[in-house]
Design a protein that fits this description.
mainly alpha; Non-ribosomal Peptide Synthetase Peptidyl Carrier Protein, Chain A; two-stranded antiparallel ribbon; 4 helices; elongated
Length: 135
């Protein structure tokens, strides 16, 4: 069983997937940094607030003795939009990478045609005729 697992783990596809997973996680951090540090502040200029802090308050909260807001119920749509933007950027970049890889792959050469020769029916007719001659 250990030998089978080693063969499975060392297959090229599994190793490729593992590398892609690690690269994807690192790329996601880069995209999150880009949207959180560059895109969100620029969009936040429109709303005069940090884009991630945009929210729709359903129920007001109160300040406790420590000065913290307690009991507020809000829809955090700014954070959702930021994460949606992250996803769209990652999905678009991955689409472009896959498109580039697919365009560089060699187009499969058509399989050579089967050799021309007698069909099965023609062979059966020859056998029949040969048997008729021998009888």
């Amino acid at each position: 069983m250990l030998k089978e697992f080693k063969e499975f783990a060392m297959k090229g596809n599994l190793v490729d997937i593992a590398v892609a997973f690690v690269m994807g996680a690192a790329f996601n951090k880069v995209v999150s940094s880009f949207t959180g540090g560059i895109v969100s502040p620029l969009i936040g200029l429109i709303f005069s607030t940090d884009f991630k802090d945009l929210k729709y308050v359903l129920e007001e909260g109160t300040l406790n003795e420590a000065g913290e807001l307690v009991g507020e119920v809000a829809v955090l749509y700014g954070e959702f939009l930021t994460n949606l933007l992250d996803f769209i950027i990652v999905a678009f970049v991955m689409f472009m990478i896959i498109k580039g890889i697919n365009s560089r792959k060699k187009k499969e050469e058509p399989k050579p045609a089967a050799p021309k020769g007698p069909t099965q029916e023609e062979l059966l007719i020859e056998i029949r005729d040969a048997l008729k001659k021998n009888n």
